[in-house]
């Protein structure tokens, strides 16, 4: 029983395969007809059979009006017959699938030979008998005849065979309608591209430029699938035609993913989605490898898989961002959903789930066009978002600026109060400092005055003592002379004149009148010398102080040095020898009193420094003057203990002193430096420990008006 049933089934199947499909009968006034149900198909998996070998093979009906042969590397043979019962003898056979790589029509002629017409992307576009991107074959078949035809088809991508038979006018009318629809679609794409290009020029936002690129590749993809690019862009380049069906969709996918990242700002708002899209970009880049190696089947399958993964992933990313409240993601989700629906219709049509009709034919173009419009609206809305964000940022900035101004004003007020307080404290400190400075200067003056007074007292004391000591013997001598004169006055009244004269002579001998004369002369000369010495000291004092010369005067510096030494004579240690090496030095214009104070301070320091040696040896202070390079040079060099470099660097600083507390104010050399500076001169110090010190003063011959 089982064997009987099996044999019966085999017989039925064998009958079906042996039974040829009925011919398509074309009659008068028939519309353009799709002849899918009249087709028979045989797949040559060896890719080596010719028309004679294939004609002996068993063909089978595809069972669908538009055969779907999927993506294979095999050679497909299609067999069909046409019976012409119309009055026409010229018909057209159109295969509406322009991406077929190689398609050849074999027409079995009455003499059992075949008329061959080869088209496809492997051949130049100029070989086509009808100027159209679809494969259109003219059929010359007399009325009331039946002809058998074979189509040899090779395709490296998805292959469907929508085959039409009709008149030239019918084919042209259908294609004109399709070109009108495609023209509208390209118009929308171009309009959106230029619109967003202008937005990019205005906003400099790269997402607009990327969107323009994406739009261009979307249009190119559709144009490639419809065969327009081969027809108009590269009609004589079969290589580009073969690769464009893979490369253009890859570039379309890459620009789409880049645009999605920029439009949704996935890197900023949804980093997992950003990384997922990056993976898809790498997968798209990987598609270039088989495409450029001419492995079109692998490249097509790879692209289809990446496209499917990208469609789902992008939908997921946009949905997650939309749920998070990102408004731009909502617009994108709507646009992407519309596009995905069109792709779904396109895929279902290719899978023969949906019929091959006008709607499924234009579904992808409609979805792509609507996506372009919706994304353009979303990009336009993005400008409003930018404006709102800019306004909000501006308001926040203004608010921050106001707050900062308030804080700044408070800090300025607080700082001003602090500065006022500090200023008052500084004024008080400055006042105290000036008072202290005044006291110190007064103290220095008093010290100098005391030193000066001591010197003056010492110098004047000697001649005064000399005068004072001469006055007493002078008085005695004058008393003796007055007694002698009294005796001569009593002589006229004396009764004994001779005796009185003898007494007078004896008195003169007693007082030794000759010695008295000599002594009086000597005493008067001594008084005269004491008065002269006192006058010299007073003159020297006036020379030193120059109290009557407050203005600039032309003075002899040697006189100032000498008067200073006179005043300091009492302070010169006994073991110190003052060596004067005066050179030829003209009078200079200066403030003489201040210059003498310079000499006083430097010489006093030199003598005091020598005193600190506490060594019983001969010391010296050498004073040298000369004219050098138009300047007056005064050198005061002592043989004292000298100074270290650290001390040397500070000796002109106010209040710096190496003396014990209470012995010096530390202002002497500071005053010296100030006076020299006011005379536009300079002072140099050459010193070293145990090498003494030398102060070299350089003064201009004429003080400028800056000195005071």
TrEMBL record:
<dbReference type="InterPro" id="IPR011622">
    <property type="entry name" value="7TMR_DISM_rcpt_extracell_dom2"/>
</dbReference>
<dbReference type="InterPro" id="IPR005467">
    <property type="entry name" value="His_kinase_dom"/>
</dbReference>
<protein>
    <recommendedName>
        <fullName>histidine kinase</fullName>
        <ecNumber>2.7.13.3</ecNumber>
    </recommendedName>
</protein>
<keyword id="KW-0732">Signal</keyword>
<dbReference type="InterPro" id="IPR003594">
    <property type="entry name" value="HATPase_dom"/>
</dbReference>
<keyword id="KW-0175">Coiled coil</keyword>
<dbReference type="InterPro" id="IPR011623">
    <property type="entry name" value="7TMR_DISM_rcpt_extracell_dom1"/>
</dbReference>
<keyword id="KW-0472">Membrane</keyword>
<feature type="transmembrane region" description="Helical">
    <location>
        <begin position="361"/>
        <end position="381"/>
    </location>
</feature>
<feature type="transmembrane region" description="Helical">
    <location>
        <begin position="180"/>
        <end position="201"/>
    </location>
</feature>
<keyword id="KW-0597">Phosphoprotein</keyword>
<dbReference type="InterPro" id="IPR036890">
    <property type="entry name" value="HATPase_C_sf"/>
</dbReference>
<dbReference type="InterPro" id="IPR036097">
    <property type="entry name" value="HisK_dim/P_sf"/>
</dbReference>
<dbReference type="Pfam" id="PF02518">
    <property type="entry name" value="HATPase_c"/>
</dbReference>
<feature type="transmembrane region" description="Helical">
    <location>
        <begin position="331"/>
        <end position="349"/>
    </location>
</feature>
<feature type="signal peptide">
    <location>
        <begin position="1"/>
        <end position="20"/>
    </location>
</feature>
<keyword id="KW-0812">Transmembrane</keyword>
<dbReference type="InterPro" id="IPR003661">
    <property type="entry name" value="HisK_dim/P_dom"/>
</dbReference>
<dbReference type="Pfam" id="PF07695">
    <property type="entry name" value="7TMR-DISM_7TM"/>
</dbReference>
<feature type="coiled-coil region">
    <location>
        <begin position="416"/>
        <end position="446"/>
    </location>
</feature>
<feature type="transmembrane region" description="Helical">
    <location>
        <begin position="276"/>
        <end position="293"/>
    </location>
</feature>
<dbReference type="GO" id="GO:0000155">
    <property type="term" value="F:phosphorelay sensor kinase activity"/>
</dbReference>
<feature type="domain" description="Histidine kinase">
    <location>
        <begin position="455"/>
        <end position="703"/>
    </location>
</feature>
<feature type="transmembrane region" description="Helical">
    <location>
        <begin position="299"/>
        <end position="319"/>
    </location>
</feature>
<keyword id="KW-1133">Transmembrane helix</keyword>
<feature type="transmembrane region" description="Helical">
    <location>
        <begin position="240"/>
        <end position="264"/>
    </location>
</feature>
<dbReference type="InterPro" id="IPR004358">
    <property type="entry name" value="Sig_transdc_His_kin-like_C"/>
</dbReference>
<dbReference type="Pfam" id="PF07696">
    <property type="entry name" value="7TMR-DISMED2"/>
</dbReference>
<feature type="transmembrane region" description="Helical">
    <location>
        <begin position="208"/>
        <end position="228"/>
    </location>
</feature>
């Amino acid at each position: 029983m089982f064997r009987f049933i099996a044999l019966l089934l085999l017989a039925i199947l064998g009958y079906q395969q042996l039974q040829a499909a009925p011919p398509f009968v074309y009659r008068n006034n028939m519309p353009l007809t799709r002849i899918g149900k009249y087709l028979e198909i045989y797949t040559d998996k060896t890719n080596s059979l010719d028309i004679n070998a294939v004609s002996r093979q068993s063909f089978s009906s595809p069972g669908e009006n538009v055969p779907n042969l999927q993506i294979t590397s095999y050679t497909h043979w299609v067999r069909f017959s046409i019976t012409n019962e119309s009055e026409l003898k010229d018909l057209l056979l159109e295969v509406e699938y322009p991406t077929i790589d190689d398609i050849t029509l074999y027409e079995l002629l009455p003499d059992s030979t075949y008329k061959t017409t080869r088209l496809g992307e492997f051949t130049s576009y100029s070989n086509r008998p009808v100027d159209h991107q679809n494969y259109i074959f003219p059929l010359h078949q007399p009325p009331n005849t039946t002809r058998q035809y074979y189509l040899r088809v090779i395709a490296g991508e998805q292959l469907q065979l929508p085959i039409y038979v009709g008149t030239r006018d019918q084919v042209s009318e259908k294609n004109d309608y399709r070109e009108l629809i495609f023209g509208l679609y390209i118009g929308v794409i171009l309009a959106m591209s230029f619109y967003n290009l202008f937005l990019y020029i205005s906003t400099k936002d790269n997402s607009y430029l990327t969107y323009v690129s994406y739009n261009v590749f979307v249009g190119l993809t559709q144009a490639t699938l419809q065969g327009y690019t081969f027809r108009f862009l590269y009609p004589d380049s079969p290589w580009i035609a073969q690769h464009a069906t893979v490369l253009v969709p890859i570039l379309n996918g890459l620009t789409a993913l880049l645009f999605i990242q920029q439009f949704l700002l996935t890197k900023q708002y949804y980093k997992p989605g950003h990384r997922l899209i990056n993976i898809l970009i790498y997968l798209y880049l990987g598609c270039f490898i088989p495409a450029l190696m001419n492995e079109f089947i692998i490249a097509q399958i790879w692209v289809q898989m990446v496209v499917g993964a990208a469609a789902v992933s992008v939908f997921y990313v946009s949905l997650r961002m939309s749920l998070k409240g990102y408004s731009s993601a909502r617009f994108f989700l709507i646009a992407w959903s519309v596009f995905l629906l069109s792709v779904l219709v396109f895929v279902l049509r290719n899978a023969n789930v949906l019929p091959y009709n006008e709607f499924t034919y234009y579904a992808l173009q409609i979805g792509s066009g609507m996506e372009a419009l919706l994304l353009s609206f979303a990009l336009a809305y993005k400008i409003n978002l930018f404006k709102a964000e800019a306004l909000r940022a501006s308001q926040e900035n203004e608010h921050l600026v106001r707050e900062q101004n308030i804080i700044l004003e408070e800090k300025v007020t607080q700082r001003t109060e602090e500065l006022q307080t500090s200023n008052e404290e500084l004024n008080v400190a400055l006042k105290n400092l000036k008072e202290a400075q005044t006291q110190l200067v007064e103290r220095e003056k008093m010290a100098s005055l005391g030193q000066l007074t001591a010197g003056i007292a010492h110098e004047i004391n000697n001649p005064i003592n000399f005068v004072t000591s001469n006055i007493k013997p002078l008085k005695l001598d004058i008393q003796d002379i007055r007694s002698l004169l009294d005796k001569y006055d009593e002589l006229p009244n004396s009764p004994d004149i001779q005796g009185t004269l003898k007494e007078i002579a004896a008195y003169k001998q007693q007082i030794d009148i000759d010695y008295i004369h000599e002594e009086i002369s000597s005493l008067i000369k001594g008084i005269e010398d004491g008065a002269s010495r006192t006058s010299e000291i007073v003159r020297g004092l006036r020379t030193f102080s120059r109290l009557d010369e407050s203005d600039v005067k032309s003075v002899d510096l040697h006189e100032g040095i000498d008067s200073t030494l006179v005043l300091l004579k009492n302070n010169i240690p006994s073991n110190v020898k003052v060596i004067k090496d005066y050179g030829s030095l003209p009078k200079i214009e200066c403030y003489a009193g201040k210059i003498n104070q310079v000499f006083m301070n430097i010489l006093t320091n030199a003598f005091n420094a020598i005193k600190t040696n506490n060594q019983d040896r001969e010391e010296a202070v050498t004073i040298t003057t000369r004219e050098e390079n138009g300047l007056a040079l005064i050198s005061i060099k002592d043989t004292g203990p000298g100074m270290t470099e650290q001390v040397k660097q500070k000796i002109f600083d106010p209040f710096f002193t190496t003396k014990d507390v209470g012995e010096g104010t530390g202002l002497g050399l500071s005053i010296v430096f100030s006076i020299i500076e006011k005379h536009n001169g300079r002072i140099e110090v050459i010193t070293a420990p145990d090498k003494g010190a030398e102060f070299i003063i350089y003064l201009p011959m004429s003080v400028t008006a800056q000195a005071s």
